[in-house]
Amino acid sequence: MTSPADFSFSQEGGARTALCTGDWTAIEMGRANDRLASALEGASDVVLDLRQIGRCDTAGAWGLLKAADSAAKPPKLVARPEVERLLELVERATKAEPTPVHRQRSFHQLFERIGRGVIHLGLEVFDTMVFFGHLLVATGRAIANPRRVRWAACFSLAERAGLDAVPIVMVTTFFIGAVVGLLGANMLTTFGAQVYVVELIGVAVLREFNVLITALLLAGRSASSFAAEIGSMKMNQEIDAMRVLGVDPFDALVFPRFFALLFTIPLLVFAATIAGLAGGLVVAWSQLGLGPVFFFQQLVDNVGPTHFWVGMSKAPVLAVIIAGIGCRQGMEVGGDVESLGRRVTAAVVHAIFATILVDAVFAVIYMKLDI
Question: How many CB atoms lie within 10 A of CB 214?
């Protein structure tokens, strides 16, 4: 049972005694400490008897100490040992010096942060090389002995990471092709060269947008999925259990995901190419009156298959990068949920950045090769 905090005064000899009763806690104290402080204000030779109180927490101890400070002369405290210890603890805490906050900003700290960032970047590059080296070893083992590959997991992941992405990839590239066609129609009609819209759509879709949009969608879809799946297994110590059982996590987890993307991304790029050309065809037909026969004849005569193969040549490289980044970030997850969220975010950001960077490198290389 709980009872509200209260007090009463009695006169014993020449000293007044304030007898505190009830529970001096944050809930039951109420305004009792303020009333006690008003009663003790300016008083001297007062005994504060705390032996009859029930429960007492830090809020109640703080209220009793504040009330005692209002007396002209500090009253004599009579309490049980546990209440005495609590009062001493709260009194020390109130008299403790505040923790100083150092907010010094100097060039030394700036250079220190830059140095730490450079070291961290070097370690990341080293760990990435180690990861891809281990992946190459696992790939070599799979080529040397295909029967040890978990083909069921490979094709299940290929369906989930690749084939299930066909609708979103085709819808996205369809509208990209339509947007390119609209821009080309508006600009080239001004110069009376609207017939070249077909070449613009063909080069843009076959060479860049088919593989780039597919890779960006997979970077956000599959890289995050790989990181989350492997990271949750790492948190639950399932990967440690694999190692104890003699199973290499690269053979069981990383290689199937690597194979799934490497197998499906050329199919997705081909589907994206068809959808992008279809979007451009719809715009050219509806806005400029260029029919399907003329559209595809212009593609064959003036664009040719070279641009298609240039775009397809990027697909395996981007598949390796996306799968590698997603799996590596998953393997780096720690034991808490915050680490999992941070690594999944890093997987998406790094995969998108690497995709755009590699595509730019390919563009420069093919430009130098005049392809």
Answer: 33
156's tokens: 């299940």
Q: What is the pLDDT of residue 278?
A: 92
What is the model's pTM?
Answer: 0.67
Residues sharing a CB contact under 8 Å with residue 54, sequence separation 6 or more, in sequence order: 2, 3, 21, 22, 23, 24
CATH class of 6-95: alpha beta
Confidence of residue 106 (pLDDT cuts 50, 70, 90): low
pLDDT at 99 over 80: no
**What pLDDT is recorded for position 171?**
93
* pLDDT score of 100: 67
- Contact yes or no for 194/288 (Cβ under 8 A): yes
What pairing do the DSSP bridges indicate for beta strands 15-24 and 53-56? parallel
Q: Which residue has the tokens 């050219």?
A: 284
Give residue limits of the domains in the chain.
6-95, 147-368
Cα(122)–Cα(116) distance, integer angstroms: 10
Amino acid at 156: S
Mean pLDDT (whole number) for 130-150: 84
- Cα 65 to Cα 125: distance, rounded to the nearest angstrom: 60
Within the chain, how many helices (H) and strands (E) appear? 15, 5
Closest CA to 280 of 179, 168, 172, 167: 179
CA distance 102 to 68: 35
Q: Are 66 and 33 a contacting pair, CB within 8 Å? A: yes
Query: What 3-state DSSP class applies to 13?
Result: coil
172 has a pLDDT exceeding 90:
yes
Which token pair is 263?
């197998």
pLDDT at position 187 is 84
- Mean pLDDT of all residues in 76-86: 86
Closest by CA position to 252, among listed 153, 108, 176, 130: 153
Q: How far is CA 92 from CA 37, 145, 174, 332, in A?
A: 20, 71, 71, 45
Pairwise CA distance, residues 160 & 216, whole Å: 17
